[in-house]
């Protein structure tokens, strides 16, 4: 038994090092990583960790992830289909419980053929061969010059919604 440190004593020593002597530990690293997230999560390193404080931190981490995903999707100008789906599921900044609605598997994931699933995923994430995406890469061509190559109507920009829904 000599030389073996019980886990609680090790946690006490870790907390003591982190809070009083300002020694970098994995506990202070958790605080730094939480603050560096796109939606910061505050972990109070001066308070001794309890079951409740750990559960609270995990809940805040889930909320941070949900808020970041929601914000990234709704602010992107490349994800109109995903934006519609996300805003329909969660119309305001989500909470931790809304994360499941944002990340829920969709029906297209269960299509019988891999190539069908891939094609729909590429469409959903704007990685399709339509001009609006292909011509935005280097050197970028202005959006209004990306005329539909199928119908050749000068006012028609070849984007995913035009190519799928309104192009003749």
Please tell me the total number of domains. 1
Query: How large a portion of the residues is in β-strands, by DSSP E?
Result: under 5%
Assign the structural class, choosing from mainly alpha, mainly beta, alpha/beta, alpha+beta, or little secondary structure.
Answer: mainly alpha
Oligomer: single chain
The biggest beta sheet, please?
Answer: none
Report the principal-axis shape: elongated
C-alpha-based Rg, rounded: 24 Å
Overall average residue pLDDT: 83
Q: What is the strand tally? A: 0
Binned, the helix content reads: 40-55%
Q: How far is the first residue's CA from the last residue's CA?
A: 81 Å
Number of continuous helical runs: 8
Order of helices and strands: HHHHHHHH
Low-pLDDT sequence parts: none
Protein name: Reverse transcriptase zinc-binding domain-containing protein
Write the topology of this structure.
Layout: H1 7-20, H2 26-36, H3 51-75, H4 80-89, H5 99-103, H6 114-124, H7 131-134, H8 160-166
Helix pairs in contact: 3-4
Structural commentary:
- This protein is mainly alpha-helical and 168 residues long.
- The protein has helices at residues 7-20, 26-36, 51-75, 80-89, 99-103, 114-124, 131-134, 160-166.
- It has one domain.
- Helices cover 52% and strands 0% of the residues.
- The chain is elongated.
- 8% of the residues are buried.
């Amino acid at each position: 038994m000599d030389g073996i440190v019980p886990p609680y004593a090790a946690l006490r020593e870790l907390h003591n090092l982190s809070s009083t002597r300002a020694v970098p530990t994995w506990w202070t690293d958790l605080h730094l990583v939480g603050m560096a997230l796109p939606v910061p999560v505050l972990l109070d390193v001066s308070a001794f960790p309890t079951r409740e404080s750990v559960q609270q931190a995990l809940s805040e981490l889930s909320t941070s992830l949900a808020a970041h995903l929601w914000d990234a999707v709704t602010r992107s100008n490349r994800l109109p289909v995903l934006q519609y789906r996300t805003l329909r599921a969660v119309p305001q900044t989500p909470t931790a419980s809304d994360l499941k609605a944002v990340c829920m598997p969709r029906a297209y994931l269960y299509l019988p053929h891999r190539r069908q699933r891939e094609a729909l995923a590429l469409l959903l994430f704007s990685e399709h061969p339509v001009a609006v995406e292909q011509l935005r890469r280097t050197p970028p061509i202005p959006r209004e010059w990306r005329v539909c190559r199928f119908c050749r109507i000068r006012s028609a920009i070849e984007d995913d919604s035009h190519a799928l829904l309104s192009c003749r």
